Amino acid sequence: MVCLPQPDAETLARREDIRAALCAIVPGEGVISDQDELRPYESDGLTAYRQMPMLVVLPETVEQVSQVLRYCHANKVRVVPRGAGTSLSGGALPLSDAVVLGLGKFKSILEIDYDNRVVVSQPGVTNLAITEAVQDRGFHYAPDPSSQIACTIGGNIAENAGGVHCLKYGLTTNNVLGVEIVLIDGDVVRIGGKQLDPAGLDLLGVVVGSEGLLGVVTEVTLRILPRPDTARAVLLGFPAVAGAGKCVADVIEAGIIPAGMEMMDKPAIECAEAFVGAGYPLDVDALLIVELDGPAAECDYLITEVEAIARANGASFVRISQNEEERLRFWAGRKAAFPATGRLAPDYYCMDGTIPRRRLPEVLERMGAMSAKYGLGIANVFHAGDGNLHPLVLYDANQPGQLEKAEAFGEEILRLCVEVGGVLTGEHGVGVEKRDLMPAMFSEVDLAHQQRLKCAFDPDMLLNPGKVFPQLHRCAELGRMHVHGGKVSFPELERF
Ligand SMILES: Cc1cc2nc3c(=O)[nH]c(=O)nc-3n(C[C@H](O)[C@H](O)[C@H](O)COP(=O)(O)OP(=O)(O)OC[C@H]3O[C@@H](n4cnc5c(N)ncnc54)[C@H](O)[C@@H]3O)c2cc1C
């Protein structure tokens, strides 16, 4: 179980004063303090962890966000920014002595500029709503997390969200051109904009993926792309996982970058098929869904190439979508795969790690062995093209000890990802979930330097503390800190 920073008793004692001050900044129904009404905020998509926040504030204007942060900074109150609360790494998990700052009221698209192919939006707009706003003119916003009907564009920026089509079109970081961000002292800063190559340091790259630790995003400028002329999906079934894994690497090696290349193992295929009837084969051990897009002639050519590579790797089932309805049906199974695993177990723990593509067969085999070791089932549904695994560890939270086993299983999977040359996260972020595993990937010196960047934005560690970094260093000390031989300086400081 992860530990969070100890609540500050002195802050909790000031709860009523803090509530009154926030009500003065955001009048009306802008502050939630009633225990029943706070309940919906007690967790995010990582529901295994829950904690009630001290208060929730729902500002409606940038000026209110600025005043809330200025107040919290002056009064040393911790703040947890929150979009739709779909984070799977516990990024929006509240702290019991913190104010949750919800961006749910920032729901407007501010500008659609087709000449420059950008959309300027408030952060509380859902990912899908961006595409819906421009699709009549033949455009779309490419990053498409499976949670796109619910998750917000602000949350996408904080987590550097990905999705099926990010293999070809890039993650959030490749599709954001600018942000307005409010710093903890209330300053409003603009970084980037409609131009492609802004001057100065690449602070945008720092902000994207910063998990609510550096500031609160209040406006985003996003790149939109024309929809491709044609998109066709191919289902490829393999009698062995190894063949599917090798096919993925061979397709990329051949110089083909599909719009998406997803993989599902047998348990995932079976429950997704039973859930939506997508037309998946049930006599295979692994299924690839490969989407090719572009001009029709290019699509046809690439489909032939992909099919040949798949057959050379032992594919026993090939079906090519013949129309848009069939293409969407192929994807419907993949998109419903997470909820469909509810047929296999009451709970699942969704992991997120990335590995080099060539190691897929070996890693899947080793995860199978872990499943036997822990006595817990596993289903795999993932972005195979970019090596981004999403093993779903199946468990029953009502059975004593199963959550702890699922956590241990998940940790072993992530350590395996690092061991084979991969990374701890692909798109869900570190949050609280992977925080304590950061030393498996980064040295103490690496982590200290990352924290110094955090200190430049938030010297009092008030924004989303307890997330991402396995230790809380005091910034003044970090500034002159020299870590030697892995020895932790200042042992009296709070460690989780
Ligand atoms: C069923 C399901 C499927 C999913 N599929 C995918 C997927 O395919 N790809 C993927 O990448 N993710 C996926 N996710 C995870 C999640 O949807 C993403 O991480 C998403 O980007 C979170 O957005 P949110 O608005 O819900 O943010 P929240 O969960 O509210 O917050 C996430 C983090 O962002 C910070 N934050 C939120 N808004 C702001 C802001 N305005 N300014 C600063 N910080 C902010 C929070 O502090 C927190 O650290 C999935 C989740 C679920 C439940």
Automatic annotation (TrEMBL):
Alphabetical list of InterPro entries matching this protein: FAD-bd_oxidored_4_C (IPR004113), FAD-bd_PCMH (IPR016166), FAD-bd_PCMH-like_sf (IPR036318), FAD-bd_PCMH_sub2 (IPR016169), FAD-linked_Oxase-like_C (IPR016164), FAD-linked_OxidoTrans_Type4 (IPR051914), Oxid_FAD_bind_N (IPR006094), Vanillyl_alc_oxidase_C-sub2 (IPR016171)
Classification of source organism: Bacteria, Pseudomonadati, Pseudomonadota, Alphaproteobacteria, Sphingomonadales
Source species: Aurantiacibacter rhizosphaerae
PANTHER family named in the record: GLYCOLATE OXIDASE SUBUNIT GLCD
Residue intervals of the FAD-binding PCMH-type domain: 49-227
Keyword field: FAD, Flavoprotein, Oxidoreductase
Entry keyword Cell membrane: no
GO molecular function: FAD binding; oxidoreductase activity
Name of the protein this chain belongs to: FAD-binding protein
